[in-house]
Write a structure and sequence with these properties.
Layout lengths: L1 H6 L2 H4 L3 H15 L2 H10 L5 H23 L5 E3 L3 H12 L4 H20 L2 H8 L2 H23 L2 E4 L3 E4 L5 H18 L5 H16 L21 H4 L7 H29 L10 H18 L4 E3 L3 H6 L5 H14 L11 H16 L10 H17 L2 H18 L8 H15 L5
Antiparallel strand pairs: 1-4, 2-3
C-alpha cells in the first residue's frame, strides 16, 4: 500500500486513501448519469441500448484508469454529452447516415487524435482557432442539447405556424419532466454534490409512484452483449468516402478538441495543477481522451471527453490519480446494473440535458461582445446550432463569417491561414454538400 501512495505522491499532494476514495466515489456518482443517458441518446440513432450501455461503461473505465495511472490526474473521462447529440441528431437523423458509418467516422477522428496527440500537434491546432469561437462552440452545443431536452420532455413541441411552441404542460409525462427540471435546478443552485444524478433518482421515484415509470423485474443482471455494436466502426471504415462524411469527421475532431481541452484546463486550474499557465503532463492527459475515444468507437459509443463533474471529486479533496482509479473501477461495477435502463425514460433524462445546457451556456460571458467583428460569427455559431438542429451547420455559419469580418475590418493580420482554409471547407459544405 505504501508503494501505491508513493506512486501517486500522496505526501507531496497532502492527501490519503480515504480522501481519494471519497473523491473518486463522488466523481462517479456525479457523472454516472451518462451510463443511462448515453444509451437513450444513441438509441434514437437505432443503436442497441444494452450494447451502448456496456460500451459507455467500458470506454469510461479504461480512459479514466489511464488518466489516473499514467497522467496521475483526478479527472474522469466518458462519452461526452453534446457530441453524442451531434452523432445522433445531426449525423444519423439529419444527414441520414447509418449509425455504423457514423461510428466509423468517430474511429477515424479518434485515430487522428492519437496521431496528433503523439506528436504534440493537438495543442498547437487548438491554439490556431480564436478563443471566442471555441467558447461559442461550447455554448452553442449547450443550447442545442437543452433544446433537445425540452423537446424530449414535451415542454416544447413543433408547430406548423410558429415552428415551435409550448407543449401540453398538463400531460402527466410532461409534468414529470418539469418536476425533474425544477428539482435538479434547485439542487444545482444549492451546490449539492451529484445534483444531476440525484435529480434523475428523484424523477424516477416520482415516476414510479405515479405509474409513469415501470419497476424492472431485477436490479442486477449479467452484463449485456456488446455484439450489436462491437467492431462495426472497423467494418464500415470504407464507407467514409465522400466529402460530406469527411466533414463529419472534421466536426467530431473540432468539437471534441475544444470540449476536452477546455474542461481539462478548468479542472487543472481548480485543483492548482497549472504551472506558468501550462498543464504538466498535458500530453498524457490528452492521450487518455484519445485512447478512450478510440476504444469507445470500436466498442460502439460516441466520442469521449473529460467531465466537468470531476470538479465534484476535486472539491472534496481529490488531488491524485488514485481518485480516477476509483472512479474507473466503479464504472466497471456499474455495468451489472443494466436493468435500470428501462426506468430511464426521456422524461427522466430530459432534465440532465437541460441542466448541462445551462452549465455550458455559462461560457457566453467570456465572448467579447463589444467587438462586433468577433461577436457576429460567435453569435451565429451559438444560435445556429439549435435553430438548424445541427452542430456542424452552426459551426459552419460562424467559421465562414469570421474571416469575412476580419478582412472587412482590416484585421487580416489577426487571421490565420488555417481559418481561411476552414472557411472555404465550410462554405463548400453549406452550399454544395447540404444541398445534395
Amino acid at each position: 500500500m505504501n508503494s501505491i501512495a508513493q506512486y501517486f505522491q500522496f505526501d507531496i499532494l497532502k492527501t490519503n486513501y480515504r480522501t481519494e476514495f471519497i473523491a473518486g466515489l463522488t466523481t462517479f456518482v456525479s457523472m454516472s448519469y451518462i451510463l443511462f443517458v448515453n444509451p437513450t441518446v444513441l438509441g434514437a440513432a437505432g443503436m442497441d441500448k444494452g450494447a451502448v450501455f456496456v460500451a459507455t461503461g467500458l470506454s469510461a473505465a479504461i480512459a479514466t484508469l489511464f488518466m489516473g495511472i499514467i497522467a496521475k490526474y483526478p479527472m474522469a473521462i466518458a462519452p461526452g454529452l453534446g457530441v453524442n447529440a451531434f452523432f445522433t441528431y445531426s449525423v444519423v437523423i439529419a444527414l441520414k447516415v447509418p449509425w455504423e458509418t457514423a461510428m466509423a467516422g468517430v474511429l477515424i477522428a479518434a485515430l487522428v487524435f492519437l496521431f496528433l496527440t503523439f506528436f504534440g500537434i493537438r495543442e498547437k491546432i487548438i491554439n490556431l482557432i480564436p478563443q471566442d469561437l471555441k467558447i461559442a462552440i461550447s455554448a452553442g452545443i449547450g443550447l442545442f442539447i437543452a433544446f433537445i431536452g425540452l423537446a424530449n420532455a414535451g415542454i416544447i413541441t413543433k408547430n406548423p405556424d410558429t415552428m415551435v411552441s409550448l407543449g401540453q404542460l398538463t400531460t402527466p409525462t410532461v409534468l414529470l419532466a418539469i418536476f425533474g427540471v425544477i428539482i435538479t435546478f434547485i439542487l444545482i443552485s444549492r451546490r449539492v454534490p451529484a445534483a444531476i444524478f440525484i435529480g434523475m433518482i428523484l424523477s424516477t421515484i416520482a415516476g414510479l409512484l405515479t405509474g409513469l415509470v415501470n419497476l424492472p423485474t431485477a436490479f442486477v443482471s449479467p452484463i449485456p452483449s456488446l455484439a450489436p455494436t462491437f467492431g462495426k466502426s472497423i467494418a464500415h471504415l470504407t464507407d467514409i468516402n465522400s466529402f460530406q462524411l469527411f466533414t463529419v469527421v472534421l466536426v467530431f475532431l473540432i468539437v471534441t478538441f475544444f470540449d476536452t481541452a477546455g474542461t481539462m484546463i478548468g479542472l487543472a486550474t481548480q485543483a492548482g495543477f497549472m504551472k506558468d499557465g501550462e498543464l504538466p503532463r498535458a500530453g498524457r492527459a490528452l492521450s487518455a481522451d484519445a485512447i478512450g475515444m478510440t476504444i469507445g468507437a470500436i466498442l460502439g459509443t460516441s466520442p469521449t471527453s473529460a467531465y466537468v463533474e470531476s470538479s465534484a471529486g476535486i472539491a472534496v479533496g481529490g488531488r491524485s490519480g488514485f481518485t480516477s482509479v476509483i472512479t474507473g473501477l466503479l464504472f466497471i461495477v456499474g455495468l451489472f446494473f443494466s436493468p435500470l435502463l428501462g426506468m430511464i425514460t426521456p422524461q427522466v433524462t430530459a432534465p440532465a440535458l437541460i441542466v448541462v445546457g445551462v452549465l455550458m451556456a455559462e461560457n457566453l460571458r467570456h465572448i467579447h461582445w463589444d467587438d462586433f467583428a468577433i461577436a457576429a460569427p460567435a453569435f451565429l455559431i451559438v444560435l445556429g446550432m439549435p435553430l438548424t438542429y445541427s452542430i456542424s451547420d452552426g459551426i459552419a455559419l460562424g467559421f465562414v463569417l469570421y474571416p469575412i469580418m476580419m478582412i472587412a475590418n482590416k484585421r487580416s493580420r489577426e487571421l490565420h491561414p488555417f481559418m481561411i482554409a476552414l472557411a472555404v471547407i465550410f462554405l463548400f459544405f453549406l452550399f454544395v454538400i447540404t444541398r445534395q
